[in-house]
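Example record used in the benchmark description.
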Amino acid sequence: MPCADFDWKGFVLQEIPPAERRRMEEHLRTCAACRQEVEALGLTIVAVRQLPQQPIPRRLAFVSDPVFELPWWKRLWRMPAPVWGFAAACLVAAAIFAHGLLAPPPPAVAQVDPAALEKAVQAELEKQLPARVEAAVRTQLAPAVTQLETRLAAFEQRVETERRADLRDVTAAFELLQKRVNNVYLASAQYGGD
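Model output (structure tokens):
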């Protein structure tokens, strides 16, 4: 396996599985360049761990706050939903109030005599009602009348066809009867009957 395929950082931090670690240890016994790289990484980790732990200075936070602060329009956009709901309710209330103040007064209603109005309505009803009822009845009955006429015509045609067939059958029966009567007359004439 070439040296570039090994993860030496994971080896030094002990983050690789044991089987892979054994293969890497075998490779380190034979490769001096990789051994030097592992030693350098180990020294770096030891040096980092020996650094003293110091809290972050508060002054740095004051310096970085304006840098990381969101612009006003992004802060406005990230406001919670109840704030937006309250603002919308206030706008609706203001619009209703403004409409109430600025709307013109309703027009004055003219006084109407109920008896005269009732007479006018009755006269108009008597004038228009019969024609409209007749038109509505005609409109409602038109499909039924058309269907009835179609069925009646089909029935009349079927009856006429059956009458002609019956007439042919009766005519044929009479012709047959006539032939038999003629045969009887011929036979009686030949053999001496009356």
